[in-house]
Amino acid sequence: MVKLDRKDLEQYTSFILQALRDEEKAKFRNNFLSLHPSDQADVFVTLNKDVRVKAYDYLESQEFARVFDRLDIHKQKLYFQELADPYAYEIFNYMFTDDVVQFIKGLDPTLAEKILYEMDQEKAKEVGAILSYAMETAGSIMTKELISISPNETAAQIIDQLREKATEAESIYYNYVVDKDGSLVGVVSLRDLITAQPETMIRDIMRKKVVSVPEDLDQEDVGGVIKKYDLLAVPVVSKHNHLLGIVTVDDVMDILESETTEDFGEISATKGATDINLSALTAAKKRSPWIIALMFFGLITGGVIGQFEDTLEQVVVLAAFIPMIMDSGGNVGTQSLAVAVRGLALGTIEKNSFWRMVRREFSTGAMIGAICMVLITLMIAIFYGNWMLGLIVGVSILCTLSVSAVIGAIVPLLINKLKIDPAVASGPFITTLNDIIGLMIYFSIATALLDAL
Fold first, then answer.
1. Helix count (H) and strand count (E) of the chain?
2. Residue 127 above 90 pLDDT?
3. How far, in Å, CA of 143 to CA of 304, rounded?
4. In a 3-state reduction of DSSP, which class is residue 31?
5. Residues 6+ apart with CB under 8 A from 313
6. For residue 398, what are the contacts with CB-CB under 8 A and spacing of at least 6?
7. Alpha-carbon torsion (191, 192, 196, 202), positive or negative
8. Residues whose CB falls within 8 Å of the CB of residue 207, separated by 6 or more in sequence, listed in order
9. Left, alpha or beta for 340 (phi > 0: left; psi -120 to 50: alpha)?
10. What are the domain boundaries of the chain?
11. What 3-state DSSP class applies to 413?
């Protein structure tokens, strides 16, 4: 199977495209099917609709299923509409159940039911079972294509089974041992099978302490288990320890990407609008509520400035440093927010480390503030010839950055304790809050030292 770099892929694409245009079926199949499925998908997305229709005709449903599986959900929906019956439904019989579930989840219920009806009924039943689980749980992301074996078989017998069933399983590196009731009692790796004597009984080489996850475990926690134990797959079990399916590492990578995208959306107040395939109108609808809310919240900032109108009238130059105070506080707060959210997501912030986290962020903000204070005080003293003005701005920066760092860390920690996604403490929210506090600090110090100016 050929794997291509970017330059070779462009050449292959041109070659395959020409074969399709010339209607040279054998030439197209020979070159296209020699590629790795991921490269096949890369080639396929470059084709226009007329050419794709020819490709559907030249590929068996089983062959196209491998391409379809590697497309993003938007391309899958587009190409599915182009397929003729029964070809359109047959491809799902050759995909792993978790991938079929991923596609069906985003469809209109009527179309989803139609696909399940037209599919192989045994396969459809497995897909339906996964769809019945709550969203974002281990059960909802597992696949049913796995190798389960009996403890009373020999290594040679299992290897023979693998030769027959390997293509049907998503992973053969772990072979799960179940008793007659379907309970998970052990695991045998492919390495164990290969190195064991042919006549060795599975019960004698299996590892009885199996790392598994319950069917209702959150998908992020499933990823944590796979990461912690450095697994390629983890079995999913019922509350009675019956083997239900497996979650593979490639699925976890997709989950982590999805969760990271979601967190970025929360932090940047763009939740649900990070997909570049969304129209401008849809993106605006999803992003505008936060912006409008923060706009009204920002009116408080104007109110703070209004409270110190007399101070500004007496020393107008103070207004020149308002943007710097606000931006600096917002930036430091967002940094602390990112640290806190990442720590909570990875589980590196322990339950009893709240105050230690606060102390660390306060110290970090104070150190950054001290550096900024020295620099800005010197610059103002040199360019404005006023040491007191420099000292007021410098001390304000020191206090603002110290407090902003604490706010950026403490808000997501408090929200997490309320069992809410800490990412909702978004960057714009933290920034606006720190703007208000920074201005109060700045003008309070300036008003107190007004006579010295």
1. 22, 6
2. yes
3. 56
4. helix
5. none
6. 366, 369, 370, 372, 373
7. negative
8. 186, 187, 188
9. alpha
10. 6-136, 148-248, 280-452
11. helix
Question: In the structure, what pLDDT confidence band is assigned to residue 269 with cuts at 50, 70 and 90?
Answer: low
Instruction: Please report, in angstroms and rounded to a whole number, the separation of the first and last CA atoms in the chain.
Output: 77
In this structure, are strands 213-214 and 184-189 parallel, antiparallel, or unpaired? Answer: unpaired
Report CA dihedral (376, 382, 383, 385) to the nearest 10 degrees: 110
The domain 280-452 belongs to what CATH superfamily? Answer: SLC41 divalent cation transporters, integral membrane domain (1.10.357.20)
CATH of 148-248, one of 3.40.50.450, 3.90.1150.10, 2.30.30.40, 3.10.580.10: 3.10.580.10
**428 or 426, greater pLDDT:** 428
How far apart are alpha carbons 388 and 453 in whole angstroms? 6
Q: Which helix (H) or strand (E) is 298 found in, with range?
A: helix 280-307
Q: How many CA atoms lie within 13 A of 44 on its CB side?
A: 31
Half-sphere exposure (Cβ direction) of 407: Cα atoms closer than 13 Å: 25
Work out the number of other CB atoms within 10 angstroms of the CB of residue 196: 19
Residues near 97 by Cβ (< 8 Å), separated by ≥ 6? 123, 126, 127, 130, 143, 144, 145, 245
Q: Is the full-model pTM beyond 0.90?
A: no
Q: Give dist(CA 338, CA 116) in Å, integer.
A: 42
Residues 114 and 109: their CA atoms lie apart, in Å, by 9
Q: Is 347 left (phi over 0), alpha (psi -120 to 50) or beta?
A: left
CA distances from 333 to 130, 336, 340, 369 (A): 42, 5, 11, 12
Query: Is pLDDT of 66 > 90?
Result: yes
Beta pairing class for 174-178 and 184-189: antiparallel
* pLDDT score at 266: 56
Closest C-alpha among 304, 316, 309, 303 to residue 439: 304
**Cα-to-chain-centroid distance, residue 154:** 41
Q: What is the pLDDT of residues 339-348, one digit of tens each?
A: 887 777 666 6
Question: CA–CA separation, 442 vs 434, rounded Å?
Answer: 12
The residue to which tokens 């199996």 are assigned? 210
Angle, alpha carbons 124-190-62 (nearest 5°) = 35
CATH superfamily ID and name for 6-136: MgtE N-terminal domain-like (1.25.60.10)
Pairing of strands 233-237, 243-248: antiparallel
